[in-house]
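Example record used in the benchmark description.
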Amino acid sequence: MNYISSIFVTLFYIGKSPIAPGTLGSIAGILIWACLNYYLGLIGFIIFFIVYFIVSYILVNIYINKTKQDDPSEVICDEVIGQFIPLLIIGSINEYYLIIFSFILFRFFDIYKIYPVNKAEKLHGAFGVILDDVVAGIYALIFLFIIKYSIY
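Model output (structure tokens):
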């Protein structure tokens, strides 16, 4: 199970990249979303998101217990989860400007840890690892919503 958790939480070891593993995780999240959105639609994506969230929580717990680290930088499944959140309001893979804004907004809030993202990051266990990215994703969702509906 340790081997499976290592592969999953690092997204097939992309998280072990010495250059910007979190950013690579966000990009992977966009690519996964694009494929799922194209082939399965919004409902299929939401089902995948829920399952991915639950599996991530379980496997992050296994991984951090194995490594004895609170929030290892190679764990990027949380970046994927956080990036998925603002993508929920993008209806098509053809809305490139919204996808780019989604990426920029999520990375901004994830990197700068504006309150309450910074508080969520201090929680222990898998909950803390994942929750800061969820909160950053919610911030990005709010701002993306404003951008999307102020343009139309």
